[in-house]
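Tutorial handout. Part one gives the primary structure; part two gives the three-dimensional structure as tokens.
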Amino acid sequence: MARTSSIPASRAAKPKLTILLASPRGFCAGVDRAIQIVERALSQFGAPVYVRHEIVHNRFVVESLEAKGAVFVDELHEVPAGAHVIFSAHGVARSVPAEAEKRGLAHIDATCPLVSKVHYEAIRHHEAGRGIILIGHAGHPEVIGTMGQLPDGAVLLVESLADAEKITPGDPARLAYITQTTLSVDDTAAIVAVLRRRFPAISAPRREDICYATTNRQMAVKALAARAEAVVVVGAANSSNSMRLVEVARQAGCVYAALVRGAEDMPWDRLEGFSRLGLTAGASAPEVLVQEVIEACRARYAVTIEDVVVTQEDVHFNLPRSLSA
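Part two.
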């Protein structure tokens, strides 16, 4: 008597899917440091510890820290006198720590050191008498913080090629440019080329302002886009580096690219018929969300994982001295 297969029909019918998993992906050293600062402050000072704005742009991270006792506020007037307050990884204007000191708040700066580097550049150029052009996105916390290092009007913001073509600085012979750390590498290079053509004497950063993590994750996405039919980026809509990964995938010729907060956002209908999916995460997205996406894929597909490694990262930033070891 013939024996029937023991494999469930639903399992046997699963279509095959190869997930091309980008490396590096997810948390960068600056994000990891900022989260550790909040956790260490809670351990050292006890709850509540206040955080001005999202420590990083990811609701999963924010809600996880809230569960441990962090309280997120929009502005310092919401922080009780005498409390501890942490400034986000995106950096703040000079007026923010000044206000904290005026109110007697114990403040800890979780600004990414690579963002602080851009702040120092802005100050150095200003003190040298140069006009400053900042390439970045209006309204982004990092841009607000960088422009806030100097007096109003000292920094001109350029967001696009069109802006670069029409900007009219006061003294074209004495200029410098700096950039937001989370921009598209290719788009920024195109803007810089216009600025160099129009202002040949413009000073450049001593070292590239776009951070290593942004650059590496965009390189990895390009590698995915060359082989995948679709690319999914785990991240938040208000995360600049995550949004840039989606754009990079599209510009690299990927048929379909999407941003998801996690497994609950997966665009299953758009992935129908695809057999190769590229998967990555923005620098503020935790690895647990990537793994949840993979498990959600396993529930629907016979999944094979292939790591796509473009480089190794070993960057580490120390915590502020005010937080004991």
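Part three, for discussion. The chain has three domains: 14-27+212-309, 29-112, 114-198. The chain has twelve helices and twelve strands.
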